[in-house]
């Protein structure tokens, strides 16, 4: 009975994943899962965790609602993993309270801007094989990035070869605007679509007029072929 009483008295949210170490840091729960060969985010992280270190593992993806139950989370370290994909709602539930998020040294080429722009946390995004485009540019302009790591956000791929290997900030400071290029492409596509539609309308009108003209000519010819009323009278 004492054993079952002890189980009931232990708060379920305070259990620690077997692959991690849970400790106190400045009176707050810290969950340390560094270098544990993890391939995904543990499901049983204590709900009262304030600091969570998942660095130096083999995690490849951050799924939607991965940290939703961690309403007290303030610092999240996902650096030095193999992360390639981040879902749009990956940080749903922790966006308001998160203060720092480290995604550096992963394999991230692109990320939905909604996933990061919803955060007020200081972001570290350095040393990833980024594709420099409009989404990353908007993150750089609107998100709260760690100033010490901004210079290490480098273009691994880009719309033009001359930008490859350069820091994104340097490319943008040179006057490049990836978003305006996308808008121009959209405008050209819209113009072509409107032109094609207008051309179809013109062709339809021409065909309609020509068809009516032919019908009119046939009708006039038919009337001319009829015997006149005056001829019958004679």
From TrEMBL:
It comes from the Eukaryota. It is a single-pass membrane protein. It is found in: Membrane. Residues 1-22 form the signal peptide. GO terms for cellular component: plasma membrane. It holds the Pfam family LRR_8. The chain crosses the membrane at residues 188-209. Keywords: Leucine-rich repeat, Membrane, Repeat, Signal, Transmembrane, Transmembrane helix. Belongs to the LRRC3 family. This is Leucine-rich repeat-containing protein 3. The gene is Lrrc3.
